[in-house]
Design a protein that fits this description.
This protein is mostly helical. Helix content is 74%, strand content 0%. The longest helix has 40 residues.
């Protein structure tokens, strides 16, 4: 990647991450992992047909909350550093004092990888018992799953699939448009 393109990408990401709307969006997105944690804890013993479903919600909610909290901290920190650099008129293009150091990068990478793998496992656990009995049968009392828990888990997975699809689609669109723009600038 050329130095000019790297600086432009870094400026773009810095502006997005320091934007107040982005921070409010992160705060709003904290609701899903917190509700996953709550539902997972509340119904921990209420799905004997697949006991890993409440565990999926509980662990995914805790790790997701941690990931969003770290993103919030990094975004507010970047916002503070950007405002300080504007106040002192620090336009030095060679140094980015708000650039993440390597260990934070690896923390984000590890949490994201774990959440992605946990998402795949959650798909398997939830859809392997698709539409279980919601009321415990008399002859097999262990063959049921609480309706609220199961419907919530399916809803979380549908939301996750939708967000993942939108991220991939938008990334492909941005890549295609930037590639087209880059090739037209070379001509």
């Amino acid at each position: 990647m050329t130095a000019g393109l790297e600086k432009a990408c870094h400026r773009c990401i810095s502006k997005i991450a320091s934007n107040a709307c982005f921070i409010f969006g992160l705060l709003a997105s904290l609701a899903l992992p917190l509700s996953m944690t709550f539902i997972g804890m509340k119904f921990l013993e209420d799905c004997p047909v697949q006991p890993l479903i409440p565990l999926y919600l509980l662990v995914g909610g805790v790790i997701g909350s941690l990931k969003v909290t770290i993103l919030l901290y990094d975004s507010t920190r970047m916002r503070q550093l950007l405002s300080k650099s504007v106040v002192i008129d620090d336009d030095d293009d060679d140094e980015y004092p708000w650039r993440q150091n390597a260990h934070k990068y690896y923390i984000h990478l590890t949490l994201s990888l774990f959440l992605f793998l946990w998402f795949i496992l959650g798909n398997y656990w939830v859809f392997s018992v698709y539409l279980p009995n919601f009321i415990p049968p008399f002859h097999q009392p262990q063959d049921y799953c609480d309706k609220t828990l199961y419907i919530f888990a399916v809803g979380v997975l549908i939301i996750s699939h939708t967000v993942l699809f939108l991220l991939i689609f938008c990334s492909c669109c941005i890549y295609c448009f930037s590639r087209q723009r880059y090739s037209s600038e070379e001509d």
